[in-house]
Design goal:
Elements: E1 2-7, H1 10-26, E2 30-35, H2 46-51, E3 59-60, H3 69-86, E4 91-95, H4 99-110, E5 115-118, H5 129-140, E6 143-146, H6 149-157, E7 166-169, H7 173-181, E8 198-202, H8 205-208, H9 211-228, E9 232-236, H10 238-246, E10 257-260, H11 265-274, E11 277-280, H12 283-292, E12 296-298, H13 306-310, E13 314-316, H14 322-331, H15 340-343, H16 356-364
Parallel strand pairs: 1-2, 1-4, 2-3, 4-5, 5-6, 6-7, 8-9, 8-11, 9-10, 11-12, 12-13
Helix pairs in contact: 1-7, 1-16, 3-4, 4-5
Length: 367
């Protein structure tokens, strides 16, 4: 079976790595790796390929993260359509909810090639562009690989254009990546972790494209750092850096916050594991924090990862409730760092294990 595996943004690489590894071991798949180039920053793409031991892509569409949504969608759609026909593809595998995953889905659809959606069925019901992508990709997919009970129910409720589509509850591919690559996790050279800190990541349009809201968040963190002597380590996603530069937002204005450039996947896991708590708007970080048993405060009204809220390790907050929620965490005893041997003894959501990619492979082969 010739499978086109489409990656383009940071989360895609994390999800694709264990699946590619399992497909290679199986021997039944001819893998064609396509990088759409949605994230072209080395820390967000090229370095990931090296870290995760992934093969070099046979194709790079080079759509770029500075392109408009419509251009990213169009170029990924046209590119995947061409490759599908040129390489006589049997299946296109897409991940998550990024723009190029939707473009790849539409490109495959127009080439009459079936699509497999890894991480299907997730819904935040917040009118976000990501949720729009999720619904459209699910509707056009022939295989829907779901990570949890909520996503499985959502997938079953979503109308699809193929009557014979298959909905398979396989578990969370991000969990497999974390468990599989945990021995490779290492510290950050430029970030001290021997003192307590709060890790902060912000990247969603709804959070940082609204300049006044972004300033409100930064002011709140800076004030908390000054008043309560709390150390904030904020990792600057390229979108955040761009918005700060374009709107004259300087790090000096918020001098009590420690700003750092993006880190590698292994460094990120290290920072998450040693954080006193995590403030984020990222779905992937919510998942990783839950597995690592770090308290996570999510700056959103809803989340596609409701199961992490059920685990009592993730709490949805606003700028009005963030301070109290964080200070409450600091009153509790500090959690120990997670060690590799502890993972197997942990109680995680069902099927968040090392067999997710194997289940996907079996489903694709019709076993």
């Amino acid at each position: 079976m010739r499978c086109l595996i489409v990656v383009g943004a940071r989360p895609n690489y994390i999800k694709a790595a264990p699946l590619i590894r399992t497909m290679q071991k199986d021997g039944s798949f001819d893998i064609v790796l396509v990088n759409t180039g949605q994230h072209y920053d080395a820390n967000m793409s090229t370095n990931f390929l090296k870290e995760l031991g992934m093969p070099s892509p046979q194709y790079n569409l080079g759509i770029g993260n500075n392109a408009s949504w419509t251009k990213q969608l169009h170029e990924s759609m046209v590119g995947i359509n061409y490759i599908c026909q040129d390489r006589k593809t049997d299946c296109v595998v897409v991940f998550g909810d990024v723009t190029s995953s939707l473009g790849a889905t539409l490109g495959a659809l127009s080439a009459k090639v079936p699509v497999a959606h890894v991480e299907a069925g997730l819904r935040s019901y917040d009118n976000s562009i990501e949720d729009t992508h999720r619904v459209l990709i699910d509707s056009a997919s022939s295989w829907l690989f779901t990570p949890c009970k909520y996503s499985t129910a959502n997938a079953e409720r979503t109308s699809g254009i193929f009557k014979d589509r298959k909905i398979c509850f396989v578990g969370n591919i991000m969990a497999e990546s974390l468990l599989r690559f945990w021995p490779n996790v290492h510290s950050c050279k430029n970030i001290k972790t021997d003192e307590p800190y709060v890790l902060v990541t912000l990247h969603r349009q709804q959070t940082i494209d609204n300049v006044e809201y972004l300033k409100e968040i930064l002011f709140l963190l800076d004030n908390l750092a000054c008043k309560h002597k709390i150390r904030f380590v904020l990792l600057k996603h390229p979108r955040l850096q761009k918005n700060m530069d374009n709107n004259g937002i300087t790090e000096k204005t918020y001098s009590h916050i420690e700003f750092y450039p993006p880190v590698s996947y292994f460094e990120m896991l290290y920072l998450e594991n040693r954080a006193r708590c995590i403030i984020t708007d990222s779905g992937g970080v919510q998942v990783e924090a839950s597995i690592l048993e770090r308290q996570c405060l999510t700056l959103r009204k809803t989340t596609e990862w409701q199961i992490t809220v059920d685990c009592k390790l993730n709490k949805l907050v606003t700028t009005n409730t963030l301070s109290d929620a964080m200070l409450e965490i600091f009153k509790k005893p500090k959690l120990e760092f997670i060690l590799l041997k502890d993972f197997m003894a942990k109680t995680t959501p069902p099927k968040w294990d090392l067999d997710v990619s194997q289940k996907i492979v079996r489903c694709l082969k019709g076993i």
